[in-house]
Amino acid sequence: MYSTISLNKKIEQLRGLEDHGYSIAHYLLMDDELAAEALKVALLEISNDISFFDLSLKAQQTILQRIVTREVFRLTNRQMMG
């Protein structure tokens, strides 16, 4: 069963992951604006997954890395196509 987590706690946990996610996105994209966009989409997706907040920090970072990387590729493909 998942724990109940307040909105403030969710925000606090997500803010704690921002630097990690941004550094991944920026390393792959070498663009501040696109890195911020990839991170924003990833954090919004994660924020809707209540089970995410019960995971260890290492597991959260791994999931964030996977989602940010997917978003980086999505943004890159969009740029190449249009």
Description of the structure:
The chain is mostly helical and 82 residues long. It has one domain. 78% of the residues lie in helices and 0% in strands. It is built from three helices and no strands. Helix 1 packs antiparallel against helix 2 and helix 1 crosses helix 3. The longest helix is centred in the last third of the chain and has 25 residues. It starts with 6 loop residues before the first helix and ends with a helix.
Overall radius of gyration: 13 Å
Whole-number tally of structural domains = 1
Distance between the termini: 44 Å
Quickly count the helices.
3
Low-confidence stretches: none
Q: What sequence of helices (H) and strands (E) makes up the elements? A: HHH
Short description:
The chain has helices at 7-29, 32-47, 57-81. The chain is mostly helical and 82 residues long.
List keywords for this structure.
3 helices; mainly alpha; 78% helix; 82 residues
Secondary-structure blueprint:
Blueprint: H1 7-29, H2 32-47, H3 57-81
